[in-house]
């Protein structure tokens, strides 16, 4: 019962994520619980369309049920029923009525389309927009913070997106520019907005804005290969002050603790540097997540497991045990090297 | 009504002779039967692949099935069900029934017919040969570039998949050319286009669609093959190609494909509902014309699969509106079927039971389709489990359930025996309950944020219950297919003799023996109305007075 055992282990791992978030109950990813204007307009439209389709459903099933009950042949009846070949007025009626409904729906959907898809270059006056470029990778997210409230940022981080909450009178719209480094992906956090694809060779845009602080989950919604299922999205909506502080922390180069020098040497002497970047060191890879402030993130492996010493150890020893098929191989490090490396990584606050 | 004697039974010949006869046959009925057998075999294979997925999704973070195996399963499940089940089974039934319904002796090009069959089968085997490379491709049935490029899918599995679809595509196109030609040229005297039986009419338009929808797919597959093996860059963004182009080409085929596989099923229920309601189809002209409307509009809706790729707002709204437009002729059909049942005297038998199931289920798939055509709502729902629920509701609650109706309807004609009504009822209820339980919850998990094509899902998402209900549904559904196959098999020997016209039906296939002789009709029949056998049975009140 290998599978069952693996399942149990995973349950325990995910239980840890719940604790780390301080939320015991199931997470809410429902499109019916929007906290951002695009998701809210979509919900209203969806409820309207559901009502229309439910009415049609009841009508059709009602007529069908009535016909089935009323027009069943009793064994005594031998003769054929009257043959009715059709009726042009009736045909016109049941062509025109749906056509009218469809026409109205098309008008309504156009209005919502313009609310949901906006031009990122024209934020509402008085707002403090944040511009982030999201780059999809197999199977993680890279975030390039470009501009906030008119100031350039030039900051790169991975997997956990932090954005500021809007306040009364101070909207802080978040404009995402979506690109892909390899295959097609899709950015979907249901409570914030509908999904938009990240396609190689194209640049897409989406936006959201919320005054509700907290963590909003989602995941990649376009099949992108082996670990598509674990390309998870975590969007932290912080208060404006917390977001400023977070930005300030992220801008700093990596800490360089004397006690962790031995681990740093392992990191810099191994192939880690080919893919990962730690600002302030010679590690300048861009193929894998930026590790400059690794420990400011709550999860590893794109939201898959909590970012603890144990999980970090597992990951560095053999990432394939955690995320089978991921593009980071096991490097066959000795136990001592792994210990040193993990101690170093733990200092990257 | 027997106008032909039975031929000497083949069973008396040695099995090698029988085999030789089947392999070399150019008889449209035998070719149709082999298509059907091929589809049934692949239906079981594709179903088994679905069960592997449903097993893996029973528990969150389950490690029962490795990710790549799961990804291979959904790739081959989709590919199999569309290309190796739906297409061949519809080609097979059309092959068998259309010449009989139009009073022809065979298809227009019998040898091309045989070629189409064997090429289709060879294509399917070629695609499955990918397993011999160490695993099937894990690219999804719509195989979005650049995941399918050599950089991201290195094994030759994807090449076998491409070649398999190319080859079976040759079979589909040659079959379509044949059927279109047959309907246009071999109709019996006086059967004008306005007197064609509705099944033949809808199969005809589905095959016209094949002629226009398959070539873009073929082109795209060849481009991909060149990218992978000859260093071309059609879909490689880094070298100036466009992954986006693949999506357009694929869906330009992919959406008409939906109607290619659903129109013939519409045709089947259009035959069954009038015969079992004992009432002429309501609004023949409108049912027929709406078929043509669907066939044309279906070529203008493809980008509704691509609302999330970031097209302009104008393009989004255009394709949303076009998708609404196609709902109108589909609705017209549905209302006419209902109006046919209304005021009739329907009698219970498996074909009618499945047709009523079709009416009650297809409307749901159609309405969730309307929901998905509302572009902003689609931004939330596309690529979620809601879509998985929707298209299975159309393909199973529309195509497959209609097919079951058609298969039971024509089984007595094809075999000369009645199927077991009792087994058919068991199959119906297991199938219907299992189907609703499997695909109903998928709409809910989709609205709760579950994307499709994920091999597992985190524990804290609240999706486990819906997935478990879906898996339970699959477990209930699975035996219904086995009962179906068993029913067809066992009734070959134990079924009661059917006679020529067990349903007291009205179209020409019921005017010959069951099973029909290889030449179909001793003399080419002639017709004066859409229901030639009705005219014959009611000389006092024939149809041609009213048409």
Low-confidence stretches of chain B: none
Helical proportion of chain B, percent range = 55-70%
Strand content of chain A: 15-25%
Q: Structural class, from helix and strand content of chain B? A: mainly alpha
Strand content of chain B: under 5%
Structural overview:
The complex is a heterodimer of chains A (349) and B (547). Chain A has 349 residues and is of the alpha+beta class. Chain A has 9 helices and 12 strands. Chain A has helices at residues 2-21, 37-70, 88-116, 240-251, 261-269, 272-275, 309-317, 319-322, 335-346, and strands at residues 130-137, 140-148, 151-158, 160-164, 174-180, 185-187, 196-198, 204-208, 214-219, 232-238, 299-300, 305-306. Chain A is elongated and about 100 Å long. With 547 residues, chain B is mainly α. The mean pLDDT of chain B is 95. Chains A and B meet through α1, α2, α3 and β9 of A and α3, α7, α8, α9 and α10 of B.
Topology diagram in text:
The complex is a heterodimer of chains A (349) and B (547).
Chain A: H1 2-21, H2 37-70, H3 88-116, E1 130-137, E2 140-148, E3 151-158, E4 160-164, E5 174-180, E6 185-187, E7 196-198, E8 204-208, E9 214-219, E10 232-238, H4 240-251, H5 261-269, H6 272-275, E11 299-300, E12 305-306, H7 309-317, H8 319-322, H9 335-346
Parallel strand pairs in A: 1-5, 4-10
Antiparallel strand pairs in A: 1-2, 2-3, 5-8, 6-7, 9-10, 11-12
Chain B: H1 15-23, H2 28-56, H3 67-101, H4 110-128, H5 157-185, H6 198-230, H7 243-277, H8 284-297, H9 313-341, H10 350-373, H11 375-381, H12 385-415, H13 421-447, H14 464-494, H15 532-537
Summarize the structure.
Chain A has 349 residues and is α+β, with helices and mostly antiparallel strands. Chain A has nine helices and twelve strands.
């Amino acid at each position: 019962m290998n599978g069952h055992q693996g399942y149990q282990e995973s349950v325990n791992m995910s239980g840890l994520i719940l604790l780390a978030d301080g939320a015991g109950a199931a997470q809410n990813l429902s499109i019916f619980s929007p906290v951002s204007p695009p998701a809210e307009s979509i919900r209203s439209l969806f409820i309207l369309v559901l009502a229309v389709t439910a009415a049609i459903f009841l009508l059709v099933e009602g007529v069908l049920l009535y016909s089935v009950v009323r027009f069943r042949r009793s064994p005594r009846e031998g003769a054929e029923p009257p043959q009715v070949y059709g009726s042009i007025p009736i045909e016109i009626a049941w062509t025109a009525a749906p056509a009218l409904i469809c026409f109205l729906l098309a008008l309504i959907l156009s209005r919502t389309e313009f609310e949901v898809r906006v031009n990122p270059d024209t934020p509402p006056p008085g707002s403090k927009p944040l511009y982030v470029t999201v780059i999809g990778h197999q199977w993680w997210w890279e975030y390039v913070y470009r501009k906030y409230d008119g100031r350039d940022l030039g900051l790169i981080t991975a997997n956990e997106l932090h954005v500021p909450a809007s306040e009364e009178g101070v909207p802080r719209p978040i404009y995402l520019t979506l690109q892909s480094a390899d295959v097609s992906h899709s950015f979907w956090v249901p409570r914030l907005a509908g999904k938009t694809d990240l396609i190689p060779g194209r640049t897409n845009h989406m936006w959201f804005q919320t005054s509700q602080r907290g963590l909003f989950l989602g995941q990649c919604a376009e099949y992108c290969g082996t670990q598509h299922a674990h390309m998870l999205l975590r969007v932290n909506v912080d208060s404006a002050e917390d977001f400023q502080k977070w930005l300030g922390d992220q801008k700093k180069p990596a800490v360089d603790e004397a006690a962790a020098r031995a681990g740093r040497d392992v990191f810099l002497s191994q192939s880690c540097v080919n893919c990962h970047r730690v600002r302030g060191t010679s590690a300048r890879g861009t193929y894998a997540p930026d590790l400059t402030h690794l420990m400011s993130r709550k999860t590893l492996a794109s939201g898959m497991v909590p970012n603890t010493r144990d999980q970090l150890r597992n990951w560095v020893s053999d990432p394939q045990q955690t995320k089978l098929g991921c593009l980071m191989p096991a490097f066959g490090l000795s136990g001592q090297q792994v210990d040193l490396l993990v101690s170093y990584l733990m200092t990257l606050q | 009504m027997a106008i032909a004697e039975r031929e000497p039974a083949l069973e008396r010949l040695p099995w090698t002779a029988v085999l030789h006869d089947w392999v070399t046959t150019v008889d449209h009925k035998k070719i149709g039967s082999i298509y059907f057998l091929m589809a049934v075999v692949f239906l079981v294979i594709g179903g088994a692949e679905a069960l592997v997925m449903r097993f893996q999704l029973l528990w969150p973070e389950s490690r029962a099935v490795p990710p790549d195996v799961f990804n291979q399963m959904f790739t081959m499940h989709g590919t199999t069900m569309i290309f190796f089940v739906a297409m061949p089974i519809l080609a097979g039934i059309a092959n068998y029934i259309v010449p009989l319904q139009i009073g022809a002796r065979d298809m227009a090009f019998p040898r091309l017919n045989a070629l189409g069959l064997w090429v289709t089968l060879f294509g399917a085997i070629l695609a499955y040969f990918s397993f011999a490379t160490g695993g099937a491709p894990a690219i999804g049935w719509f195989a979005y570039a650049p995941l399918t490029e050599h950089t991201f899918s290195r094994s030759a599995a994807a090449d076998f998949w491409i070649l398999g679809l190319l080859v079976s595509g040759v079979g589909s196109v040659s079959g379509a050319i044949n059927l279109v030609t047959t309907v246009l040229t071999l109709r019996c005297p006086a059967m004008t286009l306005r007197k064609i039986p509705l099944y033949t009419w809808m199969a005809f338009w589905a095959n016209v669609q094949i002629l226009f929808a398959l070539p873009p797919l073929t082109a795209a597959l060849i481009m991909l093959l060149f990218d992978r093996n000859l260093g071309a860059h059609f879909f490689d963004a880094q070298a100036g190609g466009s992954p986006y182009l693949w999506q357009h080409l694929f869906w330009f085929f992919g959406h008409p494909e939906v109607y290619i596989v659903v129109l013939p099923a519409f045709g089947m229920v259009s035959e069954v509902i009038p015969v079992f309601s004992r009432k002429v189809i309501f609004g023949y002209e409108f049912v027929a014309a709406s078929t043509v409307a669907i066939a044309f509009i279906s070529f203008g809706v493809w980008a509704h699969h691509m609302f999330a790729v970031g097209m302009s707002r104008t393009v989004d709204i255009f394709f949303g509106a076009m998708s609404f437009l196609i709902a109108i002729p589909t609705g017209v059909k549905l209302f006419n079927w209902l109006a046919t049942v209304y005021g009739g005297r329907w009698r219970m038998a498996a074909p009618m039971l499945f047709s009523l199931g079709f009416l009650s289920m297809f409307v749901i798939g159609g309405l969730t389709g309307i929901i998905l055509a509302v572009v902003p709502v689609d931004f939330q729902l596309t690529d979620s489990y809601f879509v998985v629920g929707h298209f299975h509701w159309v393909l199973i609650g529309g195509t497959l359930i209609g097919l079951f109706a058609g298969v039971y309807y024509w089984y007595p004609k094809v075999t000369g025996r009645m199927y077991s009504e009792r087994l058919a009822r068991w199959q119906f209820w297991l199938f219907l309950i299992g189907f609703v339980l499997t695909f109903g919850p998928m709409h809910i998990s989709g609205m709760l944020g579950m994307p499709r094509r994920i091999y597992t899902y985190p524990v804290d998402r609240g999706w486990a219950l819906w997935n478990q209900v879906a898996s339970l549904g699959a477990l209930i559904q699975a035996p219904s297919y086995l009962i179906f196959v068993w029913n067809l098999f066992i009734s070959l020997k134990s079924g009661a003799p059917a006679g020529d016209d067990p349903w007291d039906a009205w179209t020409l296939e019921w005017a010959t023996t069951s099973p029909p002789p290889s030449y179909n009709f001793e003399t080419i029949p002639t017709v004066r109305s859409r229901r030639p056998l009705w005219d014959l049975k009611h000389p006092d009140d024939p149809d041609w007075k009213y048409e």
